[in-house]
Design a protein that fits this description.
Blueprint lengths: L2 E5 L7 E6 L3 E8 L1 H11 L2 E2 L5 H11 L6 E8 L6 E4 L28 E5 L4 E4 L5 E5 L1 E7 L1 H11 L7 H12 L5 E9 L1 E3 L16 E8 L1 H11 L2 E2 L5 H11 L6 E9 L4 E4 L21 E6 L6 E5 L4 E6 L2
Parallel strand pairs: 2-5, 15-19
Antiparallel strand pairs: 1-5, 2-3, 2-4, 5-12, 6-11, 7-8, 7-11, 9-10, 13-19, 14-19, 15-16, 15-17, 17-18
Length: 324
């Protein structure tokens, strides 16, 4: 089982800890996630879980004076086969038998990971990528096109949440039919994230970071660099695990087996350098000799464990641009 660590904010390879007992305890000892979990289980109850926004506010209150970053209980098991469906509204349990999928859905159409759900006017459900712009829906219909997470944030700020659970879906379909819109978001999503105490809490409060964009055009490394600098900011530099996870999510939808990163071997300095001129501190190389030579750059594999591979600059791949 491969753990992917979640931080409130990124600090480094290790972080401070939030333990859970009768309240949240902020432990000022830098540790890895496994060390933090062991520490909390020995001296408290466990690493902190965050089942809803009330707990999130309490967590912030208990740790405000510390102004630090901390591990919590949430971790990820890699592999699309390990995804689970959840309802966005905390406390609503997902029941597969209550779901009415359209046609052969859910199907990850075209090999792309589709982790959010739409409802059509007949009440049928479809899986789709979260970045698509669809009409936002929560019982009272809102005629605004948003991405899934934007729709979730809108509903949480202005109502309660995206429509979640079988009973709300019935009411949603009735309201939706009168809108004459073909499809709309609901609060159904799937991911690989787990709470290490085994609970099924579906609450997520991800930091809204959209710093990277996947360009599904096949280009040589130099061409990809020019494109990113001309249309966005630069080819992506990955300097910590949080950025790595964000890039991994992007590359899953690529149309090539590898995706260019902004890492190139410098003939002048005889070492790998990011286009941002940063030396490689954080790295995720495949099990191969990564000694470089002139004319080589780095690409991330779009499948498997998303490791880094050195490639000739002349090869043609999709690529990731940073937006700032």
């Amino acid at each position: 089982m491969t753990c992917v660590f979640f931080l409130l904010l990124f600090l480094g390879q290790c972080s401070l800890i939030l333990c859970q007992g009768y309240k949240y305890y902020f432990i000022k000892e830098p540790k890895t996630w496994e060390e933090a979990q062991r520490y909390c289980r020995e001296g408290y109850k466990d690493l902190a879980t965050v089942p809803n926004m009330t707990y999130m506010k309490t967590l912030y209150t208990d740790s405000t004076e510390n102004q630090g970053n901390a591990w919590i209980e949430l971790y990820s098991i890699s592999g699309k086969e390990n995804r689970r469906w959840h309802w966005s509204l905390p406390g609503v349990e997902f029941n597969a038998e209550e779901m009415k999928w359209s046609g052969n859905e859910p199907n990850d159409k075209g090999g792309h990971l589709e982790n959010c759900a739409l409802i059509d006017s007949s009440g049928g459900l479809l899986d789709i990528g979260s970045s698509h712009n669809k009409t936002n829906h929560y019982i009272s219909l809102t005629m605004k096109k948003k991405k899934w997470r934007e729709a979730q944030s809108y509903c949480r700020e202005n109502h309660t949440d995206l429509a979640s659970g079988a009973e709300q879906l019935k009411e949603a379909v009735s309201t939706f039919k009168s809108s004459h819109k073909p499809r709309s978001w609901i609060g159904l999503f799937r991911d690989t994230w787990r709470w290490s105490d085994g609970s099924n809490d579906s609450y997520r409060h991800w930091r809204d970071v959209e710093n990277f964009i996947l360009i599904k055009e096949n280009k040589k490394w130099d061409e990809a660099l020019t494109y990113c600098q001309r249309h966005h900011h630069d080819l992506v530099s990955i300097t910590n695990p949080k950025e790595e996870e964000l890039v991994k999510e992007k590359v899953k939808n690529a149309t090539t087996p590898y995706v260019w990163l902004g890492l190139r071997f410098s003939c002048v300095f005889q070492l790998w350098l990011w286009v941002s001129d940063r030396v490689v501190c954080y790295e995720n190389w495949a099990n191969e000799d990564h000694a470089g030579r002139c004319g080589m750059s780095v690409a991330m594999e779009t499948g498997g464990e998303h490791k880094w591979f050195k490639k000739n600059d002349s090869e043609m791949f999709n690529f990731i641009c940073s937006l700032r």
